[in-house]
Amino acid sequence: MGTLQRIAPIFPVHDLDVAMGHYQRLGFTVRAYAGGGYGFACRDGIEIHLDVVPHDDRRTGSAYLFVDDADDLAAAWRSTGAEVHPPQDMEWGQHEGAVADPDGNVIRFGSPVRKTAGS
């Protein structure tokens, strides 16, 4: 059986320039596919593909991003003007937050819940 190497979610977007601007503000390096209608957002080995769909297409996508510190990432993304749902401790041991792009695609992100003294 072959070895899996990586995965890249494909987010449907209506305006590639708007979507790439959003991800660029979040610290991603972006580029459009030379053939048109498609783009890429890359950061720290993470890649998100952006696929232009018709305006009446209301599909959205989502991805989960494992990070070192969800609070730090939330603060950094909030400082760009993005609407970030602040991380909260979840019963399954992750400290999770979320951010949506202009097309409603959601990146949930999380880091392990920090242990407090006495726990």
Quick summary:
The chain is an alpha/beta fold.
Structure description:
By secondary structure, the protein is α/β, with parallel strands linked by helices. It has one domain (10-112): Roll (2,3-Dihydroxybiphenyl 1,2-Dioxygenase, domain 1), CATH 3.10.180.10. Helices cover 16% and strands 39% of the residues. It has 2 helices and 8 strands, in the order βαββββαβββ. It has helices spanning 16-25, 70-78; strands at residues 10-13, 29-32, 38-43, 46-52, 62-66, 84-89, 94-100, 106-112. The strands form 2 sheets. Strands 1-4-3-2 form a 4-stranded mixed sheet, covered by helices on one side. A hairpin with a 2-residue loop joins β3 and β4. The mean pLDDT is 95.
Order of helices and strands: EHEEEEHEEE
Low-confidence stretches: none
| The named CATH superfamily | 2,3-Dihydroxybiphenyl 1,2-Dioxygenase, domain 1
Structural class: alpha/beta
Given the C-alpha coordinates, what overall shape results?
A: globular
* The CATH architecture: Roll
Q: Rg to the nearest angstrom?
A: 16 Å
Please give the oligomerization state of what you see.
single chain
Number of helices: 2
CATH topology description: 2,3-Dihydroxybiphenyl 1,2-Dioxygenase, domain 1
The average pLDDT is 95
Task: Itemize the secondary structure elements and their pairings.
Layout: E1 10-13, H1 16-25, E2 29-32, E3 38-43, E4 46-52, E5 62-66, H2 70-78, E6 84-89, E7 94-100, E8 106-112
Parallel strand pairs: 1-4, 5-8
Antiparallel strand pairs: 2-3, 3-4, 6-7, 7-8
